[in-house]
Description:
This protein is of the alpha+beta class. The chain has a single domain (49-204), classed as 2-Layer Sandwich (Beta-Lactamase). It is built from five helices and eight strands, in the order H-E-E-E-H-E-H-E-E-E-E-H-H. It has a six-stranded antiparallel sheet. The chain has a two-stranded antiparallel ribbon with strand order 7-8. The protein starts with a helix and ends with a helix. The mean pLDDT is 82.
Amino acid sequence: MKEIIPTIITSVTSIIIALITAGVFNMMKEKRAKQNSRNKLSQQIETDEIVHSTLREIRRKYNADRIYVIQFHNGGNFYTSSAMQKASVTYERCSDGLERVTEKIQNVFVSHYNWLIKQTMEHGLFIHDCGHIPDISTRALIKKFGTQSMVALPITDRDNHLIALLCMDWVFSEHVEIYCENEEFTKNFKEEFKTDTESVKNFLI
């Protein structure tokens, strides 16, 4: 009996130590997870501020009224289990008093605007008069927000997959004359706009 008691005490002590150690380990793990979460949130906030600031400067440079980013994402599943392909505006800067599109363009089915996406992917979209857009769905969406002219560029990831569109609209402001000739966007405008928006793209990849 005397030999069994120390063994029991040792076993119980080992169990208690193991439980305490596990508890401390879990607490430390949760603490690290919370800290990582806070760090990621802080980093995301910093990135968002930079993107918003950059978009504001680009809008002002080109005398535009609205500039925004449409990002693609999954939005649930169909009964067939295939993913719903949707898009939402995630960043926007616009002139004072102008209606924001962020609240209106959320969880929109990509299939509704195939023409807009395809045109932007292939060459970038540069439309001086949105009334001439041949696709009815795209024209209706754009004119709904009063847009008279617009440009859009694709944003692709490192594997060259399309992940977003960067768009800029003129609603009531005139184009900066140096960028526009004979009611068409010039080659210089297109190249300069692509260069100016490169930093925004890099933050979204």
